[in-house]
Write a structure and sequence with these properties.
alpha/beta; transcription; Arc Repressor Mutant, subunit A; D-Maltodextrin-Binding Protein, domain 2; two-stranded antiparallel sheet; 293 residues; elongated; Transcriptional regulator, LysR family; DNA-binding; DNA-binding transcription factor activity; 9 helices; transcription regulation; single chain
Length: 293
């Protein structure tokens, strides 16, 4: 049958080792000297080992005691962290975060994991909707924070990263050579008006091959090599590749990934949310920089 170490006795043991005596440890722990001594004896008895060299004038640990000390410190650290996290009811409930589908990857999964670790009792409800829809919901107070993809940055927004808009097609595909160009975009795509205008200015005839409110429908057409589409660099799904410069398609503008936070969020939660998103997009920015070198 598994045996369990007494955390209270371990705390007395660690304190004695750190302050150099039972009397001092008793003062730190707000216990009597005899209570600390009894806990040490109970710990030794439970292990059947001698942990403290009592023959010396000052308290010293036996080699076995030194080995246990390392384990004990880690166990107490985990215990204290768990108690602090599980009993802190300062931030409970739910926040609503809106993110457009095309920037869910690669930054958002790691952000969500880090935020859940920081606030284990605060749930995040993730909405994946087009930028226009998210901005309308945010204006109505239906979202606590949103990420958007825009050419500019609106009032109260913070730009986390700027990425180029690129033409993309099926990896190894040939759809970009077709004329008229088969162009896939969903009805709510904020990028498609920019791409259509660029094609018109370049005199490239095109037609739409998708009629759907879903980004996934456009992705399916592109993956099947039936069409091309536009997407933010570094956010391409598996099976889709950026088209080369010699594909003959016009240049596209940069786009900002912006963060908007409601002032109804608690200040510390809002700042931690922003910090974690900044950290994740900073790593993505570094990836972009390395790819350009």
């Amino acid at each position: 049958m598994p045996r369990n170490l007494d955390l209270t006795a371990l705390r007395s043991f660690v304190t004695v080792a750190e302050v150099g005596g039972v009397t001092r440890a008793a003062g730190h722990l707000h216990l009597t000297q005899s209570a600390v001594s009894m806990q040490l004896k109970r710990l030794e008895d439970s292990l059947g080992l001698s942990l403290i060299d009592r023959s010396a004038r000052t308290v010293t640990l036996t080699p076995t005691g030194e080995q246990l000390l390392s384990y004990a410190r880690r166990m107490l650290t985990l215990n204290d962290e768990a108690i602090a996290r599980m009993t802190d009811d300062g931030f409970e409930g739910e926040i609503v975060l809106g993110v457009p589908h095309d920037i869910l990857y690669p930054a958002i999964p790691t952000f969500l994991a880090a935020f859940a670790h920081t606030y284990p009792r605060l749930k995040v409800r993730l909405l994946s909707l087009p930028t226009r829809t998210l901005k309308d919901m945010y204006a109505r107070g239906e979202c606590d924070a949103i990420l958007t993809t825009e050419e500019t940055t609106g009032e109260g927004g913070e730009t986390l990263l700027s990425l180029p808009l690129v033409w993309a097609g099926a990896t190894g595909g040939t759809a970009h050579r077709d004329r008229p160009l088969n162009f896939a975009f969903c009805r709510n795509c904020i990028f498609s008006p920019l791409a259509r205008a660029a094609l018109d200015r370049a005199g490239i005839e095109w037609h739409s091959v998708v009629d759907s409110p879903s980004d996934r429908a456009a992705e399916v057409a592109v993956m099947a090599d039936l069409a091309v589409y536009v997407i933010l660099d570094q956010t391409l799904p598996v099976g889709v590749s950026k088209l080369p410069a010699n594909a003959g398609l016009p240049d596209l503008p940069m786009q900002n990934i912006n963060l908007y936070r409601s002032n109804t969020l608690p200040a510390s939660v809002s700042e931690d949310l922003a910090r974690l998103l900044r950290d994740n997009y900073a790593r993505l920015a570094n990836t972009v920089r390395l790819a350009a070198e």
